[in-house]
């Protein structure tokens, strides 16, 4: 199936990154959010980030203008109805995602493919509550979307081959690489990455290392581009905790229990970069460790 128009639900850090890469690849994008302000901020961010690619000679100024002209915004979910492909990138809460799909169903075309950018929630379960589990898939982008090469493709139990092939071809058109994952809690990337981050928080909690020594150890000792605590702040501590809970509940294994210190940071509202405080405090010129 030929995809031309793409609806993106949620204009947060993932939704705006997804709109950015689809518009640059030539798709018409309609970005939706309940907040006008979030939509304005997302368009500004996309403009700045593509501008960064122009200044580094990776994108031409004409391609930037053409991409920005392909992005439209709306606060009304039904406006996404005519889209060939819809990518839900809202908050990582199953009730929120389920409500979005329910609200979309009466408005979409028979051929529309529905996808979720969920990082951990069961695709089979989300799909089963729609009228088209065969045309429903997990479509998981990594943060920052314009930079990260991988997209995880997750088939639910009922997803058909045509849908998988269509999304596989879309990922190629974006210039990215797909990895196919089975639909089990947190798929591949987060099944491996989140227990590592959670273990870094345990290492801090037990006093084995400080924020600085833990991050430096992994950066300099394992060549990771960011330390695990810096990365947790970048992803969002609420998202990290939500994924650990999905692993813990879904696999019923105590090795996935979230570290109490991670829970405490989330309870404090210290969610990382987005709230300007997490394992680091970002309110000054330089990030300062909070422990
Ligand atoms: N848009 C466009 N370009 C961007 C960008 C953005 N949002 N952010 C960074 N860039 C570009 C920069 O312009 C720069 O381009 P050049 O190579 O042409 O110079 C390049 O990316 C590197 O950026 P910086 O020089 O600013 O910074 P850096 O070298 O420190 O790299 C980073 C930043 C790419 C984020 C790097 O630190 C990194 O790879 N970190 C790890 C990220 C990671 O692990 N992401 C996965 C998170 S897990 C996930 O997403 C799954 C989930 O479900 C939770």
Produce the secondary structure layout.
Elements: E1 5-9, H1 13-24, E2 28-32, H2 36-55, H3 61-69, E3 71-74, E4 85-88, H4 94-104, E5 113-116, H5 123-128, E6 136-141, E7 150-155, H6 161-173, E8 177-182, H7 189-205, H8 211-222, H9 228-235, H10 237-251, H11 260-268, E9 280-281, E10 288-289
Parallel strand pairs: 1-2, 1-4, 2-3, 4-5, 5-6, 7-8
Antiparallel strand pairs: 6-7, 9-10
Helix pairs in contact: 1-2, 1-3, 7-9, 7-10, 10-11
The structure holds acetoacetyl-coenzyme A.
Residues 49, 52-53, 56, 58, 119, 142-144, 146-148, 189-190, 193, 225-226, 231, 235, 239 line the site of acetoacetyl-coenzyme A.
Site (Important for catalytic activity): 140
InterPro entries: 3-OHacyl-CoA_DH, 3-OHacyl-CoA_DH_CS, 3-OHacyl-CoA_DH_NAD-bd, 3HC_DH_C, 6-PGluconate_DH-like_C_sf, 6PGD_dom2, NAD(P)-bd_dom_sf
Domain 3-hydroxyacyl-CoA dehydrogenase NAD binding: 5-182
Strand content: 15-25%
The set of bound ligands, ions and cofactors reads:
acetoacetyl-coenzyme A
Mean pLDDT over all positions = 97
Number of strands: 10
**Rg value:** 19 Å
CATH homologous superfamily annotation of the largest domain: NAD(P)-binding Rossmann-like Domain
List the total number of helices.
11
- The CATH architecture of the largest domain: 3-Layer(aba) Sandwich
Main beta sheet, described? 8 strands, mixed
Pattern of helices and strands: EHEHHEEHEHEEHEHHHHHEE
| Tally of separate domains | 2
The helix content, as a percent range, equals: 40-55%
Distance between the termini: 52 Å
The secondary-structure class comes to alpha/beta
Strand order of the largest sheet: 3-2-1-4-5-6-7-8
Which parts are unreliable, with pLDDT below 50 for 5 consecutive residues or more?
none
CATH level 1 class label of the largest domain: Alpha Beta
Q: How would you sum up the global shape?
A: globular
């Amino acid at each position: 199936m030929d995809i031309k128009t793409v609806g993106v639900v949620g204009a947060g850090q993932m939704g705006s990154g997804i709109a950015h890469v689809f518009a640059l690849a030539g798709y018409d994008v309609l970005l939706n959010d309940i907040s006008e302000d979030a939509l304005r901020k997302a368009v500004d961010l996309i403009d700045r980030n593509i501008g960064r690619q122009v200044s580094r000679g990776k994108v031409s100024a004409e391609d930037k203008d053409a991409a920005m002209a392909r992005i439209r915004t709306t606060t009304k979910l039904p406006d996404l109805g005519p889209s060939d492909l819809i990518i839900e990138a809202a908050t990582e809460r199953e009730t929120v995602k389920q409500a979005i799909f329910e609200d979309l169903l009466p408005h979409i075309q028979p051929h529309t493919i529905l996808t979720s950018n969920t990082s951990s929630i069961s695709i089979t379960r989300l799909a089963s509550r729609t009228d088209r589990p065969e045309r429903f898939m997990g479509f998981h982008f990594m943060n920052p979307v314009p930079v990260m090469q991988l997209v995880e493709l997750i088939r639910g139990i009922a997803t058909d081959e045509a849908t998988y092939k269509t999304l596989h071809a879309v990922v190629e058109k974006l210039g990215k690489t797909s990895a196919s994952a089975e639909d089990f809690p947190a798929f591949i990337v987060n099944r491996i990455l989140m227990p590592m981050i959670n273990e870094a928080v345990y290492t801090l909690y037990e006093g084995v290392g400080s924020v600085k020594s833990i991050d430096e150890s992994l950066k300099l000792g394992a060549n990771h581009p960011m330390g695990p605590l810096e990365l947790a702040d970048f992803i969002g501590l609420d998202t990290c905790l939500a994924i650990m809970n999905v692993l813990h509940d879904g696999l019923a294994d105590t090795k996935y229990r979230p570290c109490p210190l991670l829970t405490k940071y989330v309870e404090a509202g210290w969610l990382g970069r987005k709230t300007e405080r997490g394992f680091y405090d970002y309110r000054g010129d330089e990030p300062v460790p909070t422990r």
